[in-house]
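FORM 7B - TANDEM STRUCTURE REPORT

SECTION 1: FIRST PROTEIN
SEQUENCE AND TOKENS:
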Amino acid sequence: MATVPYKFTLPEIPSFIVDAGAKKDYMGAHFWDNYDFKDTAFIRSDNGHKVFWSYLYLLSQLPISESTEDIGSVMEKARADSTVCMEMFTGAEQILYSPNSELRNETLYIEVLKNILSWGRLNESYKIRPRFQYKLALRNRLGESATDFTYTLASGRNGKLYGLVLKSLAVNANDLSL
């Protein structure tokens, strides 16, 4: 007997929510309401990956304060099953952290990493890569001081970023050959 594939259903937006922005906000917070977070078959399927991508795309349309709260909440729920949680983590890594992803978003990925790193049931060996990625993702954040680095001028003279005394500085990091 063939099994019927799981059909993911989005929650119904209450009729009193008429504003397009409010509808997105509602969907961001309730996208996964009808999903059983112990269903490992769906989240591992191609359809599951597409749904997760769609969710992250929706979050990219929301204010960052709401989207970080929403992804944190979903990752917390995903802890109900280690396979579901790790599939969502892997999906988030591919979609939010890959330099080739159109949805790359380190701010959202930091929330995913915080959740994975605080998960007590996860073996420490599985936290090595997320811990490294977390440290990298916290560097050079918008509005924060840049990480200090050493540079070499064409003349051969070396210096450090924080040793420069300038009103402003533009750094072109196109040639990173060592």
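SECTION 2: SECOND PROTEIN
SEQUENCE AND TOKENS:
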Amino acid sequence: MFILNSFTLGCGKAQNESPKYLIVKADTSKIADVVSFTGKLRPELTDEIPISDQKIVTKVFFKTGDNVNSGDVIARVEDNALAAKDEDIGNQVNQKKIAMKEAERKSAAALKDYQTQWSLFKKGVIAKQELTSAKRSLASEQSALRAAKADLKYLESKSKKVDIEMSGLDVKATRSGTLDIIYSPDNAVEINAFRISDMSQFEVRLEVSELDIVKLKQGQIAEIKFEAIPRRKFKGEVVSISGRPVDSKLGMGGLARYEVLVRLTEKADLLRIGMSATIEILLAESTGVILPIAAVQYQGEKPFVMIQKDSDSVESRPIEVGIETNTEIEVIKGLAAGEQVAVPMEI
């Protein structure tokens, strides 16, 4: 504890000079410490379905802004690599069918020749050696026909598998929500992805500097204002605080910035994705003896106030302080409501 000498108000000043102190009455009221940030509104739950470079969207069944249900076929795509594979296998199947018809023709001819040779052999016109040669030729052609049929069956099986893959190129909604079609920045008709957003729950994404991030914690209450809806305030809650800087980059002044997500805890049909928002996050609040910030002075780290003793003098009194804002400060010990406090006009 420390004591300063009492001294007279306005001592040593001419009568037309301003008083040295402004007297204020310590009052009981509410004080709140808040920090303010800006950010953009976005859906809390969003799925993005990318379209790879090998695929081309051939048909779209919905438009941007439409509501879709989980499992709905949004679009149909064509896979360039798969289409090339399907064409190649189709060509092989056609070639194998031609080869099989030729094998069938040769096999039929070899069978007819064998039957003729058998008839001649029975009549004793030809020797057994000629019949055996015809039999071997028939066996060879029949074996070639069986091989051609097996090859065709294998290729047709591959073709069916590719057809199944081709039929699986439908783009389906992964969740229920509002659809957004994302086009290529270089080609206004080329679709890069489909985005589905759950519009029933919104959040505001903030980037908070390292100086303020230490003040925030999950569960803190937030008040949200939108430039597009200036007369209305929305309630929110801090739901996520990143432990890593955004993109490992430094912000202004070389300070790291961290992502913070604030969820809106009430709904509004007027809200739209991308709206600019101002967030005020409540750090602490209390009801107690409140003074103007200028009323509290410090000797080292010890706070004190000047109490009016009478109409002509003041004396110092040590206090303990609580919540402090840019304009007000809470006194939690050493001062009662109603007491007169001298606020220095000059320090």
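SECTION 3: OBSERVATIONS ON SECOND PROTEIN
Confidence is low (pLDDT under 50) at residues 1-8, 10-15.
Residues 45-79+170-194 form one domain.

SECTION 4: SIGNATURE
Preparer initials: ____
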